[in-house]
Hints:
The complex is a heterodimer. Chain A is α+β, with helices and mostly antiparallel strands. A five-stranded mixed beta sheet of chain A has the order 2-3-1-4-5, covered by helices on one side. Chain A has eight helices and five strands; from the N terminus they run H-H-H-H-E-H-H-E-E-E-E-H-H. Chain A has helices at 13-23, 35-46, 51-60, 65-72, 94-98, 101-112, 166-174, 179-182, and strands at 86-91, 127-128, 134-139, 151-153, 156-158. In chain A, a hairpin with a 5-residue loop joins strand 2 (127-128) and strand 3 (134-139). Chain A has two domains: 13-72, Arc Repressor Mutant, subunit A (Orthogonal Bundle), CATH 1.10.10; 86-182, Glutaredoxin, CATH 3.40.30.10. Chain B folds into three domains: 33-244, NADH-ubiquinone oxidoreductase 51kDa subunit (Rossmann fold); 247-353, Ubiquitin-like (UB roll); 358-443, NADH-ubiquinone oxidoreductase 51kDa subunit, iron-sulphur binding domain (de novo design (two linked rop proteins), Up-down Bundle). Chain B has a five-stranded mixed beta sheet with strand order 8-7-13-9-10, with helices on one face. At the A-B interface, helix 2, helix 4 and helix 5 of A face strand 3, strand 7, strand 13 and helix 13 of B.
Amino acid sequence: MDNTTFPPFAITPEIDAEANKRINQYPEDKKRSAVLPLLHIVQHNFGFINTEATEWVASKLDLEPMQVHEVVSFYPGLREHSPGKYHMRVCRTLSCAMAGSEELMERLCELTGIDRSKSDSHHNPIAVSPCGQWSVEFAECLASCGTGPVCLVNDDFHEAVNPDGAQELLNKYGKADSPAANS
Amino acid sequence: MSNITYLPGKEPDAREHRLIFKNIDRVGWDNSIDCYIKDGGYEQLKKAFTMEPQAITNEVKTAGLRGRGGAGFPTGVKWGFIPPNNTKPVYLICNCDESEPGTFKDRYIVHQDPHQLIEGMIISAFAVGANTAYIYIREEFPEASEILEKAIEDAREKNFLGDDILGSGFNLEIYLHRGAGAYICGEETGLIESLEGKRPYPRIKPPYFPAALGLYMSPTIVNNVESLCHVKHIIGMGGDEYAKLGTPRNTGTRILCVSGDVKKPGYYEVEVGKITMGELLNDVCGGPKDGRSFKAVIPGGSSAKIMRCEETYQIKNPDGSQRELSFYDIPMDFDTIAACGSMAGSGGVIVMDDSRKISWVLNNINHFYAHESCGQCTPCREGSMWMRKISDRIVNGQATPEDVQTLEDVAYQIDGRTVCAFGEAASWPVEAIISKFRDELEAETSEKNEYLSEEAKRQLSFINL
Lengths: 183, 465
């Protein structure tokens, strides 16, 4: 199910140097603290964290792979499967929901052809479009409750995205890739 | 300060007192170190270095600063809990995991005024004797992470960080540590576990009070972003002068974040207790939307108990006598809101008008806590999930009147039975909403509905009763 939006996992000297820099932020005998920073480096470069990546992080930090996996499987911000090229996290929590975030999610799914019926909040939060370009996920409170509905597209933050503004939001990233635009 | 102007449409209200948010939305302001220094930045740090560390802690105590993250615990007192005979390294952690629903203040500080936080952190680290500090920032602030990384680098270049800072002999490194989307990391011991590279299961207190046994089992001070920023202003003004802001025991300013059904949602920095709920909602925030009226307010982030807008409260005066207070006359402080049965928490005020179904609000909150329970304690892990399932039934019109009682029972089985305060955070909203809106919830149920779902009946068939 993992698509080819991201390069396959492969450690370059640059990535290794970045990892070493992070490890040095913690006391020498407390390397385990660098688990999250290293996982962020992996996810940033390769889109998600696979077994190979987990083993690499474990070997960098002298841990058992299981000690890394238990972290990966806990945090909602860490992914074990590939999202789309543009991963949209829509805030689901109270203030944004009052401002219409559920409708926004529906519109985004309609426009990108995403089927969220098999998603749930815990085990399978991410739904990817058939073309592999788009994915959506409900996030819990993104801490901008005064300007809801808000969403993150990859690392870009968007405020006051009304359901009617869904197409405009998608247009910022890749109109041609949207199946709704192709049909 | 008369020379400060703000971006059009972002001007502070006349009732505001901007200390922490002085530079937010300011015309000509950017988040660079040069801009900050030109405006008198890092001068308070120089002043702090002329003082003894203990004297700084004393100023913070005199100022009466109470933590702005949620619990309202006095910051100076917290600092004083580091064991006096300690020989281990001391750590300072800035809690920038802002994730309490309804709260959005730290976001603006780290995006627009990162050096204010860094200066506050250096002063605080000097006061508590920490040579290493971490900023634990939530993963959902990617832009802020880059801004802070750059701010730390710039501060280091100017020797505000590093070795022998400004010739004081004091060394400090600040590192950024990104979380990964878990609300529980805002709980200080959960945060510490996360920083140690583990699942963020909160630690039990006692014995694990961070000031004694924190990060790597060393003394650790965990403070909220806003609290650390206040430290800079306390050193600038002096503790006595700072304490004149606000009201006794509820000193200084604080940022109130208003969201939901008001005309002008947003952030407002006010003197603590100097403004009432009515002034905040009706005057500063422009009142309810046209044709609507206020129904209920959550005053301090989603875990605070909900308040009905037509309620009145019996409050004890300092002399022991009683007085009656209407909802709109409640001062926005720590103690009065607590006396009214809720809490000022993180300052996130969520407003609901008469168009909102309370069952829908309850269900949204239940989904949040069911998702965010870390799973360490059984009452919370199972209870938050069952509360969500029951409120799902109410919202979908499938609940029986009995379900409302079951929901309340579940909430009281969580409250007080967990390692950390998440148990209360998850159950208080349920307890409060049921006690104040029981009729409305029961009206959405029906005797005709099945109390047991198909799934529950199937499960029961496996048990020999």
